[in-house]
User: What shape does this take?
Amino acid sequence: MLEQLRYLVQLQKLQNRKTHLLRSRDEAPRKIAEIEKEYQQVEAEYLLKKAELDHARKMHRNLEQEVGDLESRIRRSKQRMSEVKTNKEYQAMLKEIEELKKEINRKEDQMLEIMENIDAFSGEIKSQEKHVEACKRKVEADKEELTAHSAQVDEQLAQIEALQEKVREKLEAGILRRCDSLLQRPGGIAVAAVEAGVCQVCHLNIPPQKFIELQRDETIFNCPHCHRFMYWPGHEDYLVFDEELEEV
Ligand SMILES: [Zn+2]
Assistant: This one.
């Protein structure tokens, strides 16, 4: 077994964990924004309905006021009837009162219609209100959970970085330098398994002679295509298990 190669595999395994954790942490703000947006939609729908209900109530009040005004006009007209001199004037006033009564009827019909709407609406709005409240509670709980998760991830990342530091100390300077420059590339992969002669990172074949030499396990090789350090997982020494990493 090449010790340095085993350290490289360990370092890569830790790096993979780190990449995975960073991804899950970076997803949190996006998830929070998503659930907040969903809540805002629910709330906006509710507020719109509530505004409609308020409007209907206002219309109802206005009509009530108008009916009240019409009724007092009728009362005034009736009082004035005792003062009229001619039959023509009297008839005109009767007609006016008749018109006012018709107007009141029309408005009362409108009020009835609005009231029916208000009744139907109120029930709907009440259940919607409950739904909005439930959504709000859920959003808060989800946000709390995601924030807690992020904090947990930060802790785990610090642990992984500490483990990585220990492995790095064991790596020879030249190897570490190459490893770091490979890790800095997109994807953060410095070490590749080679199975059946194929690099498992760039998926290209390595020359058969090179694969044989790799299996001999005498020198550290790099993939001729992607330049990553190669190992053959047929050697059990390079199969690094999670629990071993805790004791690096
Ligand atoms: Zn490769």
Observations:
- Strands lie at 191-195, 198-199, 221-222, 229-231.
- Residues 192, 199, 201-202, 204, 223, 225-226, 228 surround zinc ion (CB under 6 Å).
- The chain has a mean pLDDT of 94.
